[in-house]
Amino acid sequence: MTVQMSGEPDLDFEARAKALVAQMTLEEKVSQMVYNSPAIPRLGIPAYNWWNEALHGVARAGVATMFPQAIGLAATFDKRLLQQVADIVSTEARAKFHEFQRKGDHGIYKGLTFWSPNVNIFRDPRWGRGHETFGEDPYLTGKLGVAYIRGLQGDHPRYLKVAACAKHFAVHSGPEAERHSFNAVVSQKDLRETYLPAFRECVKTAEVEAVMGAYNRVNDEPCCGSDRLLKQILRTEWSFTGHVVSDCWAIKDFHEGHGVTSTAPESVALALRNGCDLNCGNMYLNLLIAYQEGLVSEQEITAAVTRLVTTRMKLGLFDDDRQVPYANIPYEKNACREHRDFAVEVAKKTLVLLKNDKQLLPLGRDKIQAIAVIGPNADSRKALIGNYYGTPSCYVTVLEGIRRAVPADTAVYYAQGCHLFKDKVENLAEKKDRFAEAVSAAERADVVVLCLGLDASIEGEEGDVSNEYTGGDKPNLNLPGLQQELLETIHRTGKPIILVLLAGSALAVSWADENVPAIIQAWYPGAEGGAAIASLIFGDYSPSGKLPVTFYRTTEELPDFRNYAMENRTYRYMERQALYPFGYGLSYTTFAYSELQVSAAKFSGNENISCAVTVKNTGNYTAEETVQLYIRDVEARVRLPRWELKGVTKVHLTPGETKTVSWVLTPRQFALIDDEGKCVLEPGEFEIFVGGSQPDERSRLLTGQNVQKAVVELIGEARELEY
Fold it and tell me: Is residue 319 a contact partner of residue 158, using CB atoms and an 8 Å limit?
């Protein structure tokens, strides 16, 4: 019997999937459990490649709109914006997929199952893949992850636009070089308080279709075969019904790297028994041997394949295109002008103004006769797009953006200055072979835009980067190569410097903070991000980005990279004063906060607390403000964060305009995670802080603003809550 592609449209997808899988032989079932699933012609099942990426645009499949890298998107603190970005990404994904199908192209990166977003917590700034994440805070990561998933998966009641995948589950953030054998040891408190909340949000709130396991072990269990993570927490506690995919070739690490099994059949059996349905790699071809050896049952194989076929049916891959609402998206939507223009607008919202001494910025176009654009990232396309990128149809580097932004009679001098990380640009040249040219350019300019930082060739994934000694991680937080020396050399010319840092992570730029008048954190701003940077420099808009990570002063203050305990990590637990704190970012205007009010001074924990604050634009620029709410438990019996982000609202204000921002705080937002990993609501005093930054002293010093504070008291008995 041949199953038609339209199947039984009146049945639910799971019932249809069960009926289809029931007609497969054991060998056919196993063939569908690897990422490059072959066709089964007799059942009308086409070949399908599950592997696709979309962290900030459709990746590795040709031309697509390239938005700022994920860490830059996080700097917007704007979940509505991220959903819009992901909606455009999924529109282009559909446009490309259906065109590929018409051409008979079923290859890798051409499907509708996207292994994005990455909601790991960026706990250590040395981790090379941190720029793929939404930063260091569990609350912000969860909210942005949910928004991105919703934008990808769409809102149709029956069909998925594309299938999103929350990765890498769980407790995964380096070291990259050891990920195939590393055991992340984590307390139950840190697991529940820091590493799991964003994943739970993705599963419970966004209903993400897929979850990808991590390479490493967690408390001795390999993540892609963990009973605790995959069965007890994901499937049972969170009621996850989608499919689980391994990270690529992670299952062979069970016996080759982790040593928890001895043979390939044992490894695949461990993964399957604990709920890993799809293998990115080819190890699952050993399932037939595992079955013959009695290590797995056909029932377990059938359950996994049914989940996979169900996902494909939700995407409409077994239905006529006329039934699927997304199948008629035309190819012309891909990388169209509208999408590319929106990507530039998004890039503007990602940029963080870290310093602006004596209001050097914005520059007046009519006051600058000559400008020098210097640095290894000044005309770099790599520094625009980060990793997991598609092919942009157009690039605008910082140099190109500035050239376009200034009047025709303004002189623009360019010099590379130095290599990104080597001590010379030309192999046969002397060291510092571009320094003299850079000094000459600076001497002739009224102002210098110095573009330093990193790119994905030296911070990224193990195996993908040239940073071979650290496997993709940064060895320290310093500017690499000769960049610091170049900065100091240009500074000695006496010309004012605007330092533009293009990097996906925090750098220890303490010298620049003390000596350079203006600093912009630009992340990897997308293919045409240079246009956004130039617009910021010349005041076409006011910056609104905030740091989703802490900028530390030194590498030495960081705990051991391999230690997954949260002590002295991130704004929540750090002990020293930050260079630039999480949540910090300057504007060209000023905002005044007043009249923080709460609905009750005391509450029992059975009701919500309402909270409201007044925000006024007291400056001269129309601008967005990121209003942040933090809660501090004053009387906790266990080690707790100093305070935690619990609310974010974006407001758009014209000069002189006032708005009221309000939240409803639930009892869960006042609860703590104790040392046993339980969620407990305890009586006592809580402080609520609201403002444009954290309530820390460094933020107050940098912004010149105090946050508003209110105190509420929880009365009654302590009780345990759901997570």
Answer: no
Q: Which fold has domain 345-573?
A: Rossmann fold (3.40.50)
Q: Which of 247, 473, 513, 633 is catalytic?
A: 247
CATH of domain 591-720: 2.60.40.10
Burial 194-221 (b: 16+ CB within 10 A, else e): bbbbbbbbbbbebbbbbbbbbbbbbbeb
Answer yes or no: is pLDDT of 5 > 90: no
Cα of first residue to Cα of last residue in the chain, in angstroms, is 48
Taking only the tens place, the pLDDT of each residue in 45-98 is: 999 999 999 999 999 999 999 999 999 999 999 999 999 999 999 999 999 999
13-333 CATH choice from 1.20.1560.10, 3.40.50.150, 3.20.20.300, 3.30.470.10? 3.20.20.300
Q: pLDDT, tens digit, for every residue of 375-430?
A: 999 999 999 999 999 999 999 999 999 999 999 999 999 999 999 999 999 999 99
Measured distance CA(99)–CA(96) in Å, rounded: 5
Residue 468 confidence class, pLDDT cut points 50, 70, 90? low
Q: Is the peptide bond before 117 cis (omega within 30 degrees of 0)?
A: yes
Tell me whether residue 676 is one of the annotated catalytic residues. Answer: no
3-state secondary structure of 434: coil
pLDDT digits (tens, 9 = 90+) for 222-234: 999 999 999 999 9
pLDDT for 618 equals 98
CA gap 561, 198 in Å, rounded? 22
Euclidean distance between CA atoms 480 and 467, whole angstroms: 11
Nearest partner of 567 among 175, 189, 140, judged by Cα: 189
User: CB–CB of 476/522 below 8 Å?
Assistant: no
**Is-contact 319 312, C-beta < 8 A?**
no
Tokens in use for 114?
């996207």
Q: How many residues does the chain have?
A: 723
State the number of CA atoms in the 13 A half-sphere of 573 facing the CB. Answer: 20
Answer yes or no: 459 catalytic. yes
How many other C-beta atoms are found inside a 10 Å radius of the C-beta of residue 322?
Answer: 9
Q: Are 139 and 189 in contact (CB under 8 A)?
A: no
Phi, psi of 141 (to 5 degrees): -60, -40
Residue pointed to by tokens 């001494």: 357
Query: How much is the pTM?
Result: 0.97
- Each residue of 523-554: pLDDT tens digit? 999 999 999 999 999 999 999 999 999 999 99
The SS3 of residue 614 is strand
* Count of CA atoms in the C-beta half-sphere (13 A) of 698: 18
Contact 161, 152 (CB under 8 A): yes
Q: Give the separation between CA 340 and CA 392, rounded to whole angstroms.
A: 9
- Which residues on adjacent β-strands are paired with residue 519? 355, 499
Q: Give the pLDDT confidence of 627-647 residue by residue, as tens digits.
A: 999 999 998 889 999 999 999
Alpha carbons 168 and 296: distance in angstroms, whole number:
25
Q: Which of 136, 221, 459, 625 is catalytic?
A: 459
Percent over 70 (pLDDT), the chain: 98
Q: Determine the pLDDT at residue 469.
A: 60
C-alpha torsion sign, points 380, 386, 391, 396 = negative
| CA 107 to chain CA mean position, Å | 26
In the predicted model, is pLDDT for residue 1 greater than 50? Answer: no
Extents of the domains making up the chain: 13-333, 345-573, 591-720
Look up residue 603 and give its amino acid. F
